[in-house]
Design goal:
With 308 residues, the chain is an alpha+beta fold. It is globular.
Length: 308
């Protein structure tokens, strides 16, 4: 009897314990299931993100339709203007050429206004800010063959180099060096000429004639100088100044007045007197254009006020 009673007491004590164990197991199973659910969600999220990344990468690899194809067959893409983050009034234009990013170029105010109104074309902007990219390239044979100046002289040597002498003012800048006969010349290249050289859209003869034309006393170098429209000086005087012993140029516009005397450079004097490749009018256009325009401008009459 005592043994039976003891067994019943043990059963009664173990029942709550089993219930507690069952509840704990259930809780553990629920937690495990919850963790597995979160894990599955994370796995699915990663799968979606990975698929999205793959889709984006594929989209990037897909060649973009060119906005423009240059005369050399190069494709212009991603051409656009953007505002500077430092100044609201400053805008830049940039593009990619065959996938290569071009250096952003500061835009003129007129082009910015036209771009904002959608009145400007990509072709116009490319020709304005990347002109050498839009010009036909010069073939290797043509480049090597074009070494004669307009007067028949041959360019013995020409190269472009970066000035490394730190003592010079133009240190770090690209310069053009040329030898024609016994003349050796060098000058800093403009941004436009430098791009034309590296993009191979110019020739040695064109570069030398443009940059050293006046030093070489070429007639082509003076063709760009003209008198202001409508100007008809009664006399263009080239004479030696007695005080400075230098050659000067001045113009007499009759009733409108006379310009000041401007000293001639040695090369211009040589071109006029010896080489005969520059005219009086051309030299007046070079030295006196602004003075002549001022004399030709309508004079503002002084208003006379009367006290009543």
């Amino acid at each position: 009897m005592a043994s039976k009673k003891k067994q019943e007491e043990v059963k009664q004590e173990s029942a709550p314990q089993k219930q507690q164990e069952a509840a704990t197991d259930k809780k553990t199973a629920t937690k495990k299931k919850s963790e597995e659910s979160v894990k599955d969600e994370k796995t699915e999220t990663k799968k979606v993100e990975k698929a999205a990344d793959k889709k984006e990468q594929q989209a990037e690899k897909t060649p973009r339709e060119p906005q423009l194809v240059t005369v050399n067959g190069e494709k212009v893409t991603h051409a656009h203007a953007f505002q500077s983050n430092k100044s609201e009034d400053t805008w830049y234009f940039t593009a990619k050429l065959d996938g290569k990013q071009l250096r952003p170029m500061k835009m003129h105010a007129d082009d910015v206004a036209a771009y904002q109104k959608k009145e400007s074309s990509i072709e116009h902007l490319m020709k304005t800010y990347y002109p050498s990219k839009m010009e036909p390239k010069v073939g290797k044979e043509q480049y090597l063959a074009d070494n004669k100046l307009s007067d028949g002289r041959v360019i013995d040597k020409m190269n472009v180099y970066k000035e490394k002498d730190e003592t010079k003012q133009d240190a770090g800048k690209y310069k053009l060096y040329a030898v024609v006969g016994d003349q050796k010349m060098s000058t800093v290249l403009s941004f436009k000429d430098l791009n034309s050289f590296f993009d191979r859209v110019t020739t040695p003869a064109q570069l030398v004639e443009k940059n050293f034309g006046e030093k070489l006393h070429l007639a082509s170098a003076y063709a760009k100088y003209q008198l202001p429209e409508g100007a008809k000086p009664e006399n263009i005087r080239i004479a030696k100044d007695k005080q400075t012993d230098k050659w000067t140029i001045s113009a007499d516009l009759g009733p409108k007045g006379k310009t000041e005397k401007k000293p001639l450079s040695f090369d211009d004097g040589y071109s006029f007197f010896t080489a005969k490749t520059a005219t009086r009018e051309q030299l007046a256009g070079k030295y006196l254009a602004s003075d002549i325009k001022s004399l030709m401008a309508p004079k503002q009459e002084k208003s006379v006020s009367m006290k009543v």
